Amino acid sequence: MKVRVIGAGLAGVEAAYYLLKKGYHVDLYEMRPKVMTPAHRTGDFAELVCSNSLRSNDIHNGVGLLKHEMRQFDSITMKAAEVAQVPAGSSLAVDRSVFSHTIYQSLSSFENLTIIDEVYQKIDIEIPTIIATGPLTHNELMSSLGDLFDQEFLHFFDAVAPIIDGASIDMNICYLKSRYDKGDADYINCPMDKETYLQFHEALMRADKVEVKDFENNVFEGCMPVETMAERGIDTLRFGPLKPVGLETNHIKPYAVIQLRQDDVGKSMYNIVGFQTHLTWPAQKKLIQMIPGLEKANIIRYGVMHKNHYIQSTEVLNGGFQMKAYPNIFIAGQLSGVEGYVESAASGLNAAIQMDLFLTKGNIQPFPKDTMMGAMARYVSTPNRSFVPMNANFGLMDLVEKKMRKADRKTFYVNRAAHAMDAFKKEVIQFD
Predict the structure, then answer these.
(1) pLDDT of residue 391
(2) CATH of 163-303 given 3.90.226.10, 2.40.50.140, 2.40.30.260, 1.10.10.60
(3) Intervals of the chain under pLDDT 50
(4) Rounded Cα distance, 14 and 11, in Å
(5) Which own/partner contact pairs does 81-88 have at CB distance under 8 Å and 24+ positions apart?
(6) What is the CA radius of gyration of the chain?
(7) pLDDT, tens digit, 9 for 90 and up, residues 65-97
(8) What's the CA gap between 314 and 293, in Å, rounded?
(9) pLDDT for res 215
């Protein structure tokens, strides 16, 4: 049987990989590099735009549990991340190029895959289709989607952090350390004393910003621009991405710390952690070169701001990322209202599993609500007037009734999820 997957981002490649292994002929549409978006730089599959980090590997963290669940279904994203992994303490970070190349090589080895490099414009509700075009969906497809249901597309603004040439970092000032010495010393730390921080904050408040048309102050909290955080109070950054706690050196605790995370295997590029921004490029250069150790920084990529779209999925989708009114159509990735690299990939995997169940058994079987994959699907399909994109977190799961310490509660969630997933795999999809 032939199916379509629209978009070769994280959700799309995950969906395509699962369906290819199931024996479906997959037509995979990807408009890049013929038609680019404001945020992408290449035509690579699963290009990581904002950051090279897939966040925590700890199973007692929401996204860590999500990764664990994905690995149980032979996730292509997780396999590629292992191949492309670069040091990042307790987090999972990758070399972007190696990551994308690994995924492309894995997919292109299937004879039942057809890659179509063009804009997919018109949805055919008779053909089983997973739409995974992401937050920068082409206008033609947006219009076609809009024809299927009576609602306005929502949107928020996302921001991308700058990348620094590693050779231009002054390691006489900066030092290697992971917070609380957790894992290897994989982050480069730029320490600030109080006077330097206050000067930096003042310059940040006065810096020139890019004018954003039709801006609606709807910025996703997880990618909050650094200048927006600074506006919330003089110490907001010190309790956020510049938090100095656990980063002492030579028994001295800095007043604030800016961290740099390795962005490639060769250690030639470093991402400024938490420094997403939509300042003008001259303003970015001035501010970055105020940071101790980055006075001569060579900026490889400046931060940018771009508009992201998502649908009011709570009105449109069921618990399997399937459209209620058009059962052949599934919507996954950030367009569905999940937020984050791993979450997008997981939604694509979930949608592919549900499509296979629908086509072979006649109906979907949502993941248990006690699993992170199930909790995420429930969140984007449950009526909610204040719906916003959401990262994986234990708050999406049903609360524990009895009082527990925080650590014990997380362990309870993990164990409960494991039991629920084992039963689901055995009873519903017989996945080995």
Answers:
(1) 85
(2) 2.40.30.260
(3) 214-216
(4) 5
(5) 81/54, 84/265, 86/52, 86/262, 86/263, 86/264, 86/265, 87/184, 87/186, 87/262, 88/53, 88/183, 88/186, 88/187, 88/261, 88/262
(6) 22
(7) 999 999 999 999 999 999 999 999 889 999 999
(8) 47
(9) 40
